[in-house]
Amino acid sequence: MITLGDYLMVSGILFAIGFAGVMLRRNLIIIFMSLELMLNAANLSLVAFSRFRVGPTGLPDYNAQVFVFFIITVAAAEVAVGLAILVALYRARQTTDVKDITSLKF
Amino acid sequence: MAITVSRPKLNWRERLYLPAIVAGLAITFKHFKNLLLGRTKVTMQYPEQKWDGNLPDYYRGAPALVRDEDGRVRCVACQLCEFICPPRAIKIIPGEIDSTDRFAKVEKYPEAFDIDMIRCIFCGMCEEVCPEQAIFLRKDYAITGFTRADMVHHKEKLLEIGGVMHGVVLKWNKKK
Amino acid sequence: MTPESFLIITSLLKIVGILFIVILPMVSYAVYAERKVSAAIQDRLGPNRVGPAGLLQPIADMFKLLLKEDFTPRAANTFYYWLAPCLAVMPAIITIAVVPFGSTLFGVPMVIADVNVGILFVFAIASLGVYGIVIGGWASNSKYPFLGGIRSSAQMLSYELSLGLAVIPVFLLVGNLRLTSVVRYQIEHGWFIAPFIGDWTNPWKWLLTIPMIVSFIVFTIAIFAETNRLPFDLPEAEQELAGGYNTEYSSMKFSLYFLGEYAAMITGSAVIVTLFFGGWHLPGIPDGSHGWIFGLINIAVFFAKVAIIIFFFMWVRWTLPRFRYDQLMRLGWLFFFEIALVNIFVVAAIVPFIQ
Amino acid sequence: MSPFLFWIFALLTLIFGAAVVINRNPVASALSLVVSFLGLAALFMSLNAYFIGIIQVLVYAGAVMVLFLFIIMLLNLRAEEARRINWLATAGGVAVALILLGQIFSVISHLKFAQNPFPPLAGLTVDDVRNIGAVLFRNYNLPFQIVGVLVLVATVGVVLLSKREPR
After folding, report:
1. Are residues D161 and D95 in the same domain?
2. Whole-Å CA distances, A71 to A14, C194, D55
3. Which residues of C touch D31 (CB under 8 A)?
């Protein structure tokens, strides 16, 4: 029997993987992907909770799913802006390594 | 000097492009329909239909050696064709004619006469240059073989294609 | 037999039947039809050597491709080089799962999975089709395939917008995203390409026809772009990119790309038929609940309609020249995107008067 | 949803999620992320959230990751050269991630209600597209419009950012 706890565990491990990616990798684009992984781990928890809180009408709690919808929308916008910044940065510096981008001004 | 091409100004109907696209579709559909109805003349269906009957007399096909009315090989192995041949497809080994022979006066005949049909370009130079009118370009054009050796026409093959040529100059028969 | 096992067995039968009896032969004969149609348009006869009228040509082609040398360039990234052709075929075939290809046969609905996110499923899976091309172009490690891959990723992203927006008018009228409900709505209210049929006196239905046709045109053109068919086949432009993303591919891997393109075309046509041409419905023919013979006729009607749309695809391919890349982008972003948006508002304004 | 399928998709998500972090080649990372997202979408569908699951595929796998791949290929990012790994920093990073994981685990294992099975739904199939739409447009109308403005702002921002400066 799969319980809410199992889903939360998967979500937690996924979040930790994303967190490790942000901590360990120096390539900006990989860091960015790890951020997406963390966002999606949060989404999994939200959907699992939504399915767990079934109301008196026998329907899941759609507030959480609407929240996930917002997260996905905003994440898509974030990716577009983030990648545009990355391209601008690459044009200026020819690198995507965070170690080479330490100054605030260039 | 750079030439500036002035582009035509399009009106709104042309700028919409849709009428032009529909007109193009109509043209292609007309062709499609006509072919289905059998109104279009299509190209000849080669292996079933052939040019054979319709080939003009000046057609330059595979070169061939001819015999005269007496059955003598007209070639006297002068090797002019071998020298003129642009792709060097012809190879002749001349041989003496025995003095007891009826045509001993001719002196030479081709012991071997090979034309490599892989190299031959059907230019007709050999026919032009031949002083004896012994080599002619015939109407064969489908020459095939599985090996390179198959594609070399030997003397027997060339004579077989050529056959007997009547009514040309017969200078060797009159004498002797 | 329990309902669950009955469901599983009928689903498997439907998957096997639709895939191996209809889609795959249709794909190989679409290639044959393409050659015949192009030949007819160019006043030629096309393949006519293998079998009567060349009907066995696809089989000969298959043997030829199977027996060709399967060449992998040394500089290629081998794993992704092998993976990419599979990725190119899969999405196109998976998409057919949600399309209703018939009414019912012996009481079993003729759709593999009637999910409530039907059209979103189609878009989601179709958008995965770009990976096969992008990865193939990248893994070949060669200039022209790489350019083809880059082009295709930008092109697919751009045209997915107008693809998604163009069908919203249809679902404004239907009220949910199930493709079976789209077909049912069209049976009751007339096909979306001509909603006035059967309701001749209603002026609003006549008014609705204009935005529906605009919607159909935008959707069809976006499908052309998504399946890399000719006016938009820039990822594989032979003349500029030497074959584009599949330049380095040979043998069965190349033919997988080739089949993937045609499978995508068939599923795209199936979606067009379902959304705008009434799916399996033909006026005057009852559905499968009146006898199994009508169920079979419904399926035949559906695939006949698909075949007509595929002919249209080929017809356009052999008529129009290829776009330039900047023209393609301008057309997608500055033209179809806006038309589809305005179209949604127009239909939304008409909808209250229809119901 | 059978436990078998759940574990298959959960493992798919986690293994390919880890592959995103481990892979040196950015293209391989991006493709691993696509597979991870597909597994995640399957998990969403196992929770009867079909709309969210399909949106996940449509937006993330279909659009966002294609954008990632496009940028990686456009910038021609190669696999990082194997530079000397700073073992101390790596160990530190892994340790911090493990500590976080431990904390999450301990919290979840202390949740008593998390061990209960999922309550049954009203029917086998719930039209969740319609229900989400109703909740979204009735209860969250203003946030929805604000998100719309946000996306517009992001679009304008991206156009400005990616414009080359005139020289």
Report:
1. no
2. 17, 40, 11
3. 80, 131, 135
C135 touching chain D per CB within 8 A: yes
Chains contacting chain C through 3 or more C-beta pairs under 8 A = B, D
- Give per-residue pLDDT as tens, C271-326: 999 988 888 888 877 777 777 888 888 888 888 999 999 999 988 888 888 888 88
CATH assignment at residue D17: 1.20.120.1200
Q: What is the pLDDT of residue D146?
A: 92
Query: In terms of residue numbers, what domain contains C117?
Result: 69-354
Q: What's the CA gap between A13 and A33, in Å, rounded?
A: 16
Mean pLDDT of chain D: 84
Please report whether residue C317 resides in a domain.
yes
- What is the span of the domain harbouring residue D152? 127-167
- Do D148 and D133 lie in one domain? The reply is yes
Q: Are A60 and D60 in contact (CB under 8 A)?
A: no
Q: Does C211 touch chain D (CB under 8 A)?
A: no
Tell me the two tokens of residue B19: 């009428």
Check if the beta carbon of residue B158 is closer than 8 Å to that of residue B101: no
Q: Is the pLDDT of residue A84 over 60?
A: yes
For residue D36, what pLDDT is reported? 92
Taking the C-alpha atoms of residue D58 and residue C126, their distance in angstroms, rounded to an integer, is 9
A-D contacts (CB, under 8 Å): 228
Q: Based on the structure, what is the number of domains in chain D?
A: 2
Specify whether D113 is located in the same domain as D133.
no
Low-confidence ranges of chain D (pLDDT < 50): none
**What amino acid occupies position A64?**
A
- Residue recorded with tokens 């709690």: A61
Q: How many CB atoms lie within 10 A of CB C66?
A: 11
CA B37, CA B43: separation in Å to the nearest integer? Answer: 16
**What does the DSSP 8-state code read for residue C245?**
G
Domain membership of residue C48 (yes or no) is no
C286-323: burial string, b at 16+ Cβ within 10 Å, e else: ebbeeeeebbebbbebbbebbbebbbebbbbbbbbebb
Q: For D32-60, what is each residue's pLDDT tens digit?
A: 999 999 999 998 888 888 888 888 888 88
Residue C223: how many other CB atoms lie within 10 Å: 24
Topology (CATH level 3) of domain A4-100 = Helix Hairpins (1.10.287)
CB C177: neighbour CB atoms within 10 A?
A: 25
Q: Where are the domains of chain A?
A: 4-100
Shortest distance, CA D118 to any CA of chain A (angstroms)? 5
State pLDDT tens for residues C151-169.
888 888 888 888 888 888 8
**Which residues of chain D are within 8 Å of residue A1 when distances are taken between CB atoms?**
3, 117
- In total, how many domains does chain C have? 1
Residue numbers in C near B29 (CB within 8 A): 315
Inside any domain, residue C205:
yes
Q: What is the ipTM of this complex?
A: 0.78
For residue B6, how many other CB atoms are within 10 A of its CB?
Answer: 6
Same domain as D132, residue D117: no
d(CA D6, CA D12): 10
- Residue C127 is nearest to which of D31, D58, D70, comparing CB atoms? D58
* Distance from the C54 Cα atom to the nearest Cα atom in chain D, whole angstroms: 40
pLDDT tens for the 176 residues of chain B, in order: 788 888 888 888 777 778 888 898 999 988 888 888 888 787 888 888 887 777 888 888 888 888 877 777 888 888 898 899 999 989 899 888 877 777 777 778 888 888 888 898 988 888 889 888 888 888 888 888 899 888 888 888 888 777 777 766 666 665 54
Same domain, D63 and D140: no
Contact C354, C173 (CB under 8 A): yes
Report the C-alpha gap between C138 and C81 in whole angstroms: 8
Is the model's pLDDT at A86 over the cut of 80?
yes
